[in-house]
Amino acid sequence: MATRMTVDTAAIRARHPHHFGRPSRSRQFLLAMGIAAALLLLFGMAQLGFFDGKFLAGLGKLGEIAGLMLPPNPGDWAHVRVYVMSLIETVAISLLGTLAAAVLAVPLALLAAKNVTTARVLHFLSRRSLDTIRSVDILIWALIWINVVGLGPFAGVLAIMTSDIGSFGKLFSEAIEAADRKPREGIISTGGSAILGIRFGILPEVFPVLASQVLYFFESNTRSATIIGIVGAGGIGLHLAEAIRTLELQQASFIIVMILIAVAAIDMVSNQLRFALIGRRGQLA
Q1: Residue 95's closest CA among 262, 243, 276?
Q2: What's the rounded Cα separation, in Å, for the pair 133 and 164?
Q3: Nearest-angstrom CA–CA distance, 109 and 115
Q4: Does residue 202 surpass a pLDDT of 60?
Q5: Mean pLDDT of the 117-124 span
Q6: Within 10 A of 52 (CB to CB), how many other CB atoms are there?
Q7: How far apart are CA 226 and CA 235, in angstroms?
Q8: d(CA 110, CA 113)
Q9: What is the C-alpha separation between 63 and 111, in angstroms, rounded?
Q10: Contact present, 226 and 235 (Cβ < 8 Å)
Q11: 278 with 205: CB under 8 angstroms?
Q12: In terms of Cα–Cα distance, which of 242, 265, 261, 262 is closest to 252?
């Protein structure tokens, strides 16, 4: 028979008094903040109508709409050709906008990085400029560029490019600030210029990180290009909005399935490119 082990609770309490004693002030403060956040969440949900039956009633309508969307049906092959060409246009808008933003964001990120730009005024203005660009949503940029250059995919490319410059500038500058300073200092100490220090001391180290971020944004912007297409910035979004407006829900579901397949394919290709750039050390077998 197995013997029952006795536990010396007193000895454990003596060795770990912080686990058995009264909660410290910091733990009490965190607990109070958690309770306050939960109460604030419940209050906000009540103010927005989550508890008055609208949400539960809407679930039934959502089920009805989902039933009307199945099975996905484009209608005829003419619609399929139009949707495929529009989807290709959407991917092209995303690719061109993302690449243009990445190229333009690199010099702005260097100006916004503390370890590159020592002038506080220039660093401050660069940071605040990127914040200003990033604070405007991509849909607003699409509406602005549509009024500037007119309807079409060119406005979509400009909208994605403008919106991503702010995001890339912030992410790139943070990656540059986290880079090891020794390679750059070594180049400068041997007579190299500051530009050569950046070119050969910083950029090679942070390039895999920057490339990984660009690939992720390309995938994300494919979805964003669908949204801005609804307001006339080109791509398949216009056809999706029209199908929903005219209650052609099976065509709308067919377009959604096409978008899902495109995003999944882009994700697979992006993963292959990312592992080719940063190596497969982090890839699981």
Answers
A1: 262
A2: 9
A3: 11
A4: yes
A5: 80
A6: 10
A7: 6
A8: 5
A9: 52
A10: yes
A11: no
A12: 242
